[in-house]
Design the sequence.
């Protein structure tokens, strides 16, 4: 311990403590930089019948019924990572604002033609009027830079700095709704319990927390009245204890111009801390930019119920077998049946020679394999959308069985032709549509931090004040952070996935009012 402490100044130690970190954790992060992060080894992509389950109509009905029954006794909650800023959504408009207009007349005409189709148009019109100007005059005068400034900067809507949660996504006759409001309504449709309580938890950035709270205070009462529910809304921010130390190109701790150590946010994997604190039995996880207007919600909600019912049905089977294993009443025939359940229902790969192990060894292995958090992940057919996908993955170090994992392209060796061939042959991608079971067979919450594959961190080049640095991101929330969960992939319809990555995505038919 003294050797480690002596490598840091008293000022460093105070800085590390202020982040809520320990010397040991910082040293672990530095070791990752020095050793490098090994790429994930793909074995093969998941396909329907090989890693991806295709549910029949009869199964879908049965799982909806299982979900409905569980509503009476289980605590459901929706978890929405909502801290992302909208700056990337408006990348092209920021460029045009910087260049004082659009590059071509066709680009400008498309912008003007589409402007009234956005759900935020009326707010924009009002913001311009509040400055004593008229939006139609600006359009006629081709004052493109002025229009963009009123959209993107604090002179008007300030959309370039707000989180996606607070952007108006959809238009309705009674007014437009933000992405946050659409998620509130959707949460009611599948988390409301017999006491009419609906639960949702959002993670937000510290800088936007007050603005999000203000929006919630303005709208919650109306939605509670309209939807006959009590909304229990939780907000949390990413904790500094999840930040990671930055290093210079020589892998030495990066220091600011004041000599202080520099720490950076640990990526969306840092939100595992927030998820770990939720008081819930079943958690629906969905990104803030994936939401639809009311006319398309029934299909989305239906599949949420199907996935939840599938998870609950599996969980019931897991819990029965865990109780048998924990009581040490399992006979040889029981162990054989439980092993078959693991292979057939949970798609777990048992190690070679498993059946030749002693009963005590098999019992221990099966108990450890089953006693984990469980997630069911919707997967949609690949239609060219960016993002990760479902794969059979080889274990770190090449020892152990294959496992089902959600993998991002950045996690594999892109210089390996064989790995890239496997990557490109994937038929499905991850829309971030998860249902999570986070309690064990005794009803106690799992410590989710115990099931992280820390080797699945990522290192990337960044810069600060013109100086190059290397940044470390913790294993992604649904990637390495859930690597040691039990995982099932289910094919879901593309209609349940409608992300908004750029502002023009809001012009897609599924995000437009029918009369628009």
Sequence:
């Amino acid at each position: 311990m003294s050797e480690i402490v002596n490598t840091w100044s008293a000022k460093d130690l105070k800085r590390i403590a202020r982040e809520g970190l320990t010397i040991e954790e910082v040293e672990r992060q530095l070791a990752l930089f020095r050793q490098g992060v090994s790429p994930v080894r793909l074995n093969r992509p998941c396909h329907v019948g090989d890693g991806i389950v295709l549910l029949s109509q009869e199964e879908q009905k049965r799982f909806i019924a299982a979900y409905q029954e569980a509503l009476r006794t289980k605590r459901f909650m929706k978890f929405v990572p909502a801290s992302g800023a909208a700056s990337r959504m408006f990348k092209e408009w920021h460029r045009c604002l910087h260049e004082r207009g659009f590059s071509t007349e066709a680009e400008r005409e498309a912008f003007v033609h589409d402007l009234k189709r956005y759900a935020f148009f009326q707010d924009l019109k009002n913001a311009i009027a509040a400055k004593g100007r008229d939006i139609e005059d600006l359009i006629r005068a081709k004052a493109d830079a002025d229009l963009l400034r009123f959209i993107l900067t604090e002179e008007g809507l300030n959309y370039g700095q707000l989180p996606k949660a607070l952007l108006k996504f959809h238009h309705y006759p009674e007014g437009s709704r933000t992405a946050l409001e659409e998620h509130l309504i959707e949460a009611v449709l599948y988390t409301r319990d017999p006491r009419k309580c609906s639960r949702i938890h959002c993670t937000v950035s510290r800088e936007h927390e007050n603005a999000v709270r203000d929006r919630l205070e303005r709208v919650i009462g109306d939605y509670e009245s309209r939807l006959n529910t009590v909304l229990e809304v939780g907000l949390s921010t990413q904790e500094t204890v999840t930040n990671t130390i930055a290093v210079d190109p020589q892998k030495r701790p990066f220091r600011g111009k004041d000599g202080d150590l520099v720490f950076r946010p640990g990526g969306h994997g840092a939100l595992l801390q927030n998820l770990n604190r939720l008081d819930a039995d079943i958690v629906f996880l969905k990104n803030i930019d994936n939401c639809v207007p009311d006319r398309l919600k029934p299909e989305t909600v239906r599949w949420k119920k199907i996935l939840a019912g599938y998870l609950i049905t599996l969980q019931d089977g897991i819990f029965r077998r865990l109780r048998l294993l924990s009581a040490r009443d399992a006979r040889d025939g029981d162990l054989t049946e439980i092993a078959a359940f693991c292979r057939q229902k949970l798609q777990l790969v048992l190690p070679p020679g498993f059946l030749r192990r002693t009963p005590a060894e098999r019992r221990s292995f099966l108990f450890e394999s089953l006693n984990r958090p469980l997630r069911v992940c919707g997967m949609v057919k690949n239609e060219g959308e960016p993002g990760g996908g479902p794969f059979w993955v080889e274990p770190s170090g090449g020892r152990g069985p294959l496992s089902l994992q959600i993998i991002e392209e950045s996690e594999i060796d892109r210089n390996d032709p064989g790995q890239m061939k496997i990557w490109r042959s994937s038929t499905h991608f991850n829309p971030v549509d998860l249902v999570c079971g986070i309690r064990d067979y005794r009803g106690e919450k799992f410590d989710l931090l115990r099931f992280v594959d820390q080797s699945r961190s990522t290192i990337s080049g960044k810069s600060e004040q013109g100086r190059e640095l290397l940044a470390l991101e913790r294993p992604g929330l649904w990637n390495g952070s859930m690597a040691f969960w039990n995982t099932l992939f289910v094919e879901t319809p593309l209609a349940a996935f409608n992300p908004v990555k750029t502002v023009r995505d809001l012009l897609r038919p599924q995000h437009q009012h029918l009369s628009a």
